[in-house]
Amino acid sequence: MTQTVNADTKAQVIAAYHDHPVFQCSTCSATIALQDELISKSFSGRDGRGYLMHSAINLKMGKREERGLLTGVHTVADVYCMGCNERLGWHYVKAPDNAQKYKEGKYLLEREKLVKDNAWKLDE
């Protein structure tokens, strides 16, 4: 589902993955992805290191565009946090060649825009 990037969608943020390690938006703490969905930490985003993820939630998509990346021109759509509209990375829509097809349908999330929540329980 594509949302208007500037639309107020804070009320649509869903709480999910209770008691599981997750990545959260560093600005508003909305849950973005399960840590188990991490494919690779060896990617580069616009603002530094990035994580390639199988899936993500509480995101809205920007418009698709052709973007020159380190591995060629890909069709991508920027993704924004549903809670605060912060740009968190992009979604790979189409890859340029067979060696890059594994990225299609995956998310590149900027490491600096995420917080790890390990859902640790402390004994009281």
Strand order of the largest sheet: 3-4-8-7-6-5
Level-2 CATH architecture: Beta Complex
Q: Approximately what portion of the residues adopt beta-strand conformation?
A: over 45%
- The level 1 CATH classification is Mainly Beta
Helix fraction by DSSP (H/I, runs of at least 4)? under 10%
Poorly predicted spans: none
Question: If you average the pLDDT, what whole number results?
Answer: 88
Number of domains: 1
CATH topology value: Metal Binding Protein, Guanine Nucleotide Exchange Factor, Chain A
Total helical segments: 0
Q: N-to-C SSE series?
A: EEEEEEEEE
Structural class: mainly beta
What is the approximate shape?
globular
* Rg on CA atoms, Å: 15 Å
What does the largest sheet look like?
6 strands, antiparallel
Key traits:
124 residues; mainly beta; six-stranded antiparallel sheet; three-stranded antiparallel sheet; zinc; Yippee; Protein yippee-like; Yippee_fam
Produce a short descriptive summary.
Belongs to the yippee family. With 124 residues, this protein is mainly beta.
